[in-house]
Amino acid sequence: MTRTPLRPLARILEARARGENPKVIERENIRQRHEDMKDRARARAEGRLLVLGLFFFCAFSVVGVRMGMLATSEAQEPLANAPGAAIAMQRANIVDREGRILATNLDTYSVYAQPPLMIDPVAAADQLVAIFPDLEKERLVKDFTGDRKFLWIKKRISPEQKQAVHDIGDPGILFGPREMRLYPNGRLAAHILGGSGFGREGVSAAEVIGVAGVEKQFDDYLRDPANGNKPLQLSLDLTIQAAVEQVLYGGMKIMNAKGASAVLMNAHTGEVVSAASLPSFDPNDRPRPPTSGFDPSDSPLFNRYVQGVYELGSVFKIFTAAQAVQLGLVNSNTIIDTSGPMRIGRFPIGEFNGKNYGKISVADVIVHSSNRGTGRLALQIGAKRQQEFLRALGMFEPTPFEIVEAKGGEPLKPRKWGELSTVTISYGHGLSTSPMHLAAGYAAIANGGHYVSPTILRKNGPQYGPRVMSDNAAQQAQTMLRRVVTDGTASFGDVAGYDVAGKTGTADKPKPRGGYYDDKVIATFATFFPAYDPKYVLIVTLDEPSIVAYGEKRRTAGWTAVPVAAELIGRIAPLLGLRPRLEPEAGAAITLTSN
Q1: Is 347 helix (H, G, I), strand (E, B) or coil?
Q2: Which terms under GO biological process does the entry name (predicted)?
Q3: Which of 1, 199, 257, 396 qualifies as a FRET site for 78, CA 20 to 30 Å off?
Q4: Fold of domain 240-576
Q5: What is the residue extent of each domain of the chain?
Q6: Any idea which fold 94-233 has?
């Protein structure tokens, strides 16, 4: 930059020669210099303002575009994003119908090792085996002294175990936070809850997932962060469940049964208030599935009331009688000839212990559990109409009960449904279903003829499905079933004040590889109570029961399942809020006289 002098000599000399004042030239140069300085300052300021304006324009443009994207996108739940915690651990609680905890979460720890950081691997292995006896010292030493950089020691530990491991003091043994699933009631309702395990795992977190029962059925709901504070409420009543399991276990032991199941269902809402399968397990320490053997019922994981698909025997006879009444073929007083012989093709149809009841009413066919009487009713109904009726009762598909195991309870139907199948199915042979199927069928009789779907979720008010039988047919069936308890094969099932109604069923147990056992049965008692105003259905099934009574070995349901069901009803009816109806006492035979 060239600076112009304020008093240029040439101009000064020229101005003096003309007699002018040289200071005017100096002042003019100063003014010009100041003007140039102002112009440069203004240009510099305008440039800065332009850059600042462009900056604000870009910033507001970015904010505006982001706001537009948020306004037009679908809302999503924000996820916490912290280093090492990319696995979501939150899982909603499971509660019973009264809000009592069935499954919840517990903060705990895992323990792992980084062998390169360990100081004394052999000593650490010795102390770990002392804390966790199920570990193998040789395997630990091999892993600690080999080339491994990381290995899990235990996926979850108790606070006491954490302190003991901490006291080892080896810097190569570290802890990771965990959220484990806790079932505070232990074995109670184990087959309903199912259990859980770990999915994706990291050092700082692990994903808890359902592996069976409602934990797996509702896994998406329970893992949804939006439901973290909203528990899954079941229809189960924890108090009643505890009473049912206690009585059922005692009955199973007294009757020398291999296993047992019980389903208590509201006949109007379909809510399963209690469901038990024995033997059971602790979902806090769920056993591994069996890897050998042919009988799945040998495992405590086997859910008998949905996976136990068996021919349930004479409990099906009431469906045949109810359908015959529904079709107008008979009523409860119609006489049926149950005399023999009766043959379907080359197969004879006989009665239990070779009995012959002769000509009896339809009601007595049910009371005496006549095979021939029920078979002759079924022949009047016909195969096609029989199939339609049983299909309407849900006997051809797995039950819609909301646990994953229910999908495996596929009923077994005959390949060819001819006259023989029509007759045998009428008295409970040839069609295999589960106790949960039977509960839904008896609920239709108890509630006046409507199908209700068994559900494990809490409902409000009746949940009637399509009508499957007329109210008249249901009422006559109720009366017949009440007589079975007062006059028939279920005489041990009456409970004072509750007017129990029901039907017994004893069927030979099938072998896993085909055929039937000669000395093993499935004994079932299907009942509802109170008979004068049915509210609840109870299905009790015993697997291979056998007792000695009056000097004889007895396996039939009337001697085994019925007493257990009676004890159950006597225990749980008050817990359900049902008041007993007591018969008035007879008046004293006193005659008033005067002197």
Answers
A1: strand
A2: cell wall organization
A3: 199
A4: Beta-lactamase (3.40.710)
A5: 94-233, 240-576
A6: Penicillin-binding protein 2a (Domain 2) (3.90.1310)
